[in-house]
Amino acid sequence: MNTTLVIITFAIIAFWAVLYALYGKREEKEEGLTVDFFIAMWRTKRLLGFIDRLAGRNRKFWRVYADVGIALGFMGMAYVFYALFKTAVATLKSGGHNGGVQLVIPGVTIPLWYGLVGLAVVMIVHELSHGVTARADGLPLKSVGLVLLAVIPGAFVEPDEERLSKASLRTRLRVYGAGSMANVATALITLLIINLAITPLLQPSGVLVSGVLENGPSHGILQKGDVIIGMNGVQIKTIDQFIGFMNKTKPGEVITLTVLRHGKELKLRVKLGTHPDKPGEGFLGIYPAQNMKSKIGFDWLIMPLFFSLYWIYVLNIGIGLMNLFPLVPLDGGRMLDDVIKRYLPEGVANPVRYLTIGLGLLLLAVNLIPALANL
What we know:
- With 375 residues, this protein is of the alpha+beta class.
- The protein has 10 helices and 12 strands.
- Helices cover 53% and strands 20% of the residues.
- α3 packs across α6 (169-198).
């Protein structure tokens, strides 16, 4: 077993043991920290006034905004269900080698700091949108806060559940759909900023080696993070130039790569393998990506800004849509559940709900198992 994994696991268990010993026997309260097994929640009322002021400025706007969120919610629900069904079928056909869900773990499956920035934005806009929409429709909030589930951080806005359950169906759907509405809106705004303000400042500057295939031709020669800027003396700036060069190579051919590694230029020779999908072509055995740099300098500012905005976009659109998957306790599941209970007789509604839950869990499992195996 991986020693690092064992150390991390014991560290997590020790952390929760200490936290539970200090706070775990306290009763749940409206403010402060409460701890259960691998769940810690910190509640406060300090931000409720800010949410009230934001919701009170233009209640009509927030209600229209939330109505759009209802429509987006059901369209997104159908899209996510179809997408996961399609990828589940592909996963089963491939024998479980490909999955449709990517786990979001900063430092493991996504970059650490950019991932944390993106996740913070996801949580803030999502929960703030829930709270503002609830207040715009006159529903009281009990608290806002932060939550830690094992090692996964989160945020929440806690409405008065009794009042929410007695509210009209439209009001409940507004509250549920508002979170993903905010995430999608944030993703679109971020995409506009990237395309209109950041991308014009960038230019291609080689091919980034984002990964090296184990036991492939480049294993032990190229490293993750290398930037290929030349091949056999030919300057390489774009992915298209890289692909065009590789399409002309043959298996067994030795090529000379000009590579930037930690700011230093290196000349490396690689004997090409056979392309797994094109037997007559050479294969380098890397995961290539377009490398970029700023046209105006200030790479220390422009590039981190670009990557921060990129991950804000990716995580908001991905998590926002995934939250609409029709499975309780996700917002999409709560929306569908309330509609089923409202419009179907109890004898029909319950079987439909159970069928939806079972099918949803099955689709998630089929898509998640390859992602877990690839960790």
